[in-house]
Design brief:
The protein is an alpha+beta fold and 166 residues long. The chain has a domain of 114 residues: OB fold (Dihydrolipoamide Acetyltransferase, E2P). Helix content is 16%, strand content 39%. It contains 2 helices and 7 strands; from the N terminus they run ααβββββββ. The strands form 2 sheets. The chain has a 5-stranded mixed beta barrel. The protein is globular, with a radius of gyration of 21 Å. The termini are far apart.
Length: 166
């Protein structure tokens, strides 16, 4: 009986340790999230009006308007830890709408972000000579990734000798 009890405690402890090691989300939506990608929303913005999204990507530019700031993002898919994955290729573009003034230094071009928010329509714009539809996202939370975040992942290697890995 004592062995059975000890095994049960060990199993609970192992589960707790594994749960503690799991990647936690950096942003959390307040409502069910639509799985649509930025380019899908750009094609049918009225279909997704008001939907909650969790998207990420790289900042391309920032414009401070009178009462809000708009940050243009090159969208990338997110991994299981909600990190943008640039190597997977772009999934379109979108604009984050933030209330008030935002300092450009805090949102520089090239910075990667993950955000949660609500789709609030779209706006036509241009990329070079191409007309482009940008979904607008009223951001609830924006996580700014530090430089080198793509390489900040646990890596497991089994080595034998010097320079030889299995």
């Amino acid at each position: 009986m004592k062995t059975h009890h000890a095994l049960r405690i060990a199993a609970i402890a192992a589960a707790a340790l594994l749960t503690a090691c799991m990647a936690q989300p950096v942003v959390v939506a307040t409502a069910p999230v639509t799985p649509a990608l930025a380019y899908e929303v750009a094609a049918e913005p009225e279909r997704y009006a008001g939907a909650e999204v969790i998207w990420g990507g790289m900042i391309l530019g920032l414009v401070n308007r009178e009462s809000q700031t708009e940050v243009t993002i090159l969208a990338y898919p997110l991994d299981s830890a909600q990190r943008p994955v640039p190597s997977a290729g772009s999934r379109g573009r979108f604009i984050i709408v933030l209330p008030g003034y935002v300092e450009r230094h805090d949102y520089p071009d090239g910075l990667f972000v993950t955000l949660s928010g609500r789709l609030a329509g779209s706006r036509a714009g241009h990329v070079d000579e191409q007309t482009f539809v940008y979904p607008l996202v009223e951001a609830a939370h924006v996580h700014r990734w530090p430089p080198g975040f793509q390489f900040d992942r646990p890596q497991w290697h089994i080595g034998i000798g010097v320079g030889v890995r299995l």
